[in-house]
Amino acid sequence: MKHYLSFTLATLFALYAVTLCAQQPSPVMLTVWGKELLEKQHLVPHQEHPRPLLRRERWKTLNGEWFLSVPGDNTTRNVRVPFPVESVLSGVVKPLREMNYRHLFAIPDDWNGGLRILLHFDAVDYETTVFVNGKKVGEHNGGYSPFTFDITDVLKPKETPAGKPAWQQIDVKVVDPCDTGEQMCGNQSAQPTGTRYTGASGIWQSVWIEAVSPSHITDIDFEVATDVSNVIIRPLVTNPKPNLFISAELFLAGEKVAETNGGIDGTLRVVIPESQRCMWSPEEPNLYDVHVRLFDGGTVIDDLHSYFAPRTLSLKPDAGGRLRLLLNGKPYFMQAVIDQGYWSDGIYTPPSDAAIEAEIRTIKMLGFNSVRKLAKVESQRWYFWCDTIGLLVWQDIPSAANRTAASRERFASELVEIVKSRRHHPSIAVWTLFNEGRGQHQTERYDQLVRGIDSTLLIDAASGWNDTATGDFQDTHKFPGPDMPDEPDRKRASLLGSFGGITLVVKGSTWTQDVWGHSHAANSEVLLQEYQRMYNALIPLIKRGMVGAAVHQLVDVETECNGLITYDRKNLKVPPEKIKEINEAVIRAATQ
Prior knowledge:
Elements: E1 2-7, E2 14-19, H1 32-39, E3 59-61, E4 64-70, E5 73-81, E6 98-105, E7 116-121, E8 124-125, E9 127-132, E10 135-141, E11 147-150, E12 168-175, E13 188-189, E14 197-198, E15 202-203, E16 207-212, E17 216-224, E18 230-238, E19 244-252, E20 255-263, E21 268-271, E22 288-296, E23 299-308, E24 313-317, E25 323-327, E26 330-331, E27 334-339, H2 353-365, E28 370-373, H3 380-389, E29 392-396, H4 405-422, E30 428-435, H5 443-453, E31 458-463, E32 473-478, E33 493-500, E34 502-503, E35 519-520, H6 524-543, E36 546-552, E37 571-572, H7 576-591
Parallel strand pairs: 13-14, 27-28, 27-36, 28-29, 29-30, 30-31, 32-33, 33-36, 34-35
Antiparallel strand pairs: 1-2, 1-37, 3-16, 4-5, 4-6, 6-12, 7-11, 7-16, 8-15, 9-10, 9-12, 17-18, 18-21, 19-20, 19-22, 22-23, 24-25, 25-26
Helix pairs in contact: 2-3, 4-5, 6-7
């Protein structure tokens, strides 16, 4: 019996067959990237700029070794940020409900006076209180949304009287009740079992500082004409003043295509030459790079880089009256795989940016054009790679218990923060509000709330179970499936939000001996046969109106061994060329 090993240190998995072994599972499952991080202690994890859509040169990562203590315990230990404390890559490997972080850092010498220093946290689970040099700078509730504090006024002078660099001290207090509380936690659990997995407490995305002028750009909206003839740029400027104006240059594949300038109180229009107009799709992920400068008189006071990608998503009836998905005006079928974003060594945090890139490239290599991000919001680097490599994303809002009025308002608030922080990524095509009824309430309210933030995306209001006839899709779940309603809703398009779930255990690459799945395959040949059967059965459903299907799932997660890839990312369970062949055949059948 054979399976297929997926092992990479670069950007693409190299695949070859090996024989199943009788090795017992290790208590620590390392990916190759996690192993490298532990072996090279000097490596600072996730050194890449964490915000690809708004990049400045004056920034510094604070990732790496921090101190950690627990209230009531005088012991201080090291923790590697940004990995949750439950993960082996954090160095703690222990669930904590309360924790205190401490870190010392110095302001770079070339960050001259007059600049404001911003402290960014991309995600901390869950209640966070931040102090700098003993002074409270702010609080934040929410485990999936980024937050920023201006810490300029509490910083020490950059040099001591002796001329040595002054150390600045950050203290971060975190409380995380995990799923025993009411907050968004997705599939995390304090008592993991079944489809509930290990919690991810504390700092789990990048921490960094940035130097900006008192007047600076905090966001940029791009509105692109449907024929890509022109782009409207709307910068949001903090502390606007008279005499400020903006210049913008657009580039495509490194070549300058257009430029414009104007005041900050209106919009900038850029005309794109006809020969350099193109749309974004998974097949052609064209990105326009943008260089924006903010001037005060003749002086540049802000200088940043961003990107955008023109693409349109719509639903339109076919000749039989069934709603079809159109991407850039053409029929499109979303051939998706479910990805829960769990890692055997980092839990919620990928071990490196290279690991993220490799995984996105593997999804494309397997012939998928879409991915459903189930019950989790990733770092912006993950969406950057989807934008760059070309994958459509069905993005879930992580579930919460939502039992009280207060918790429901907190859910609404964090939902808005999540959508606003990710809406500029062209890869995101669908927002899924509720999955399988977990915490579902006031579905129509949230549908309208998200549309008010971004009307260019589609809404899957309820994926599985509690259909309230709201949103753009009627979403069915079936294991192993596939299936769809006998009489599909003609006012919404039909989705198969989750199907498959076929388990194949690869010895030596399991989290525990206790594994489960919706159905079981004896070996990789049987798994491939079942995969082929499901997709053969999917084609007639597509003819009846299905516009997308998400197979469960890309990677095993803890005891749930129904992924195409093992949890340690070392074994691909079926021949990749065969999966690609099946996926591409379905896509061809869907668009004929």
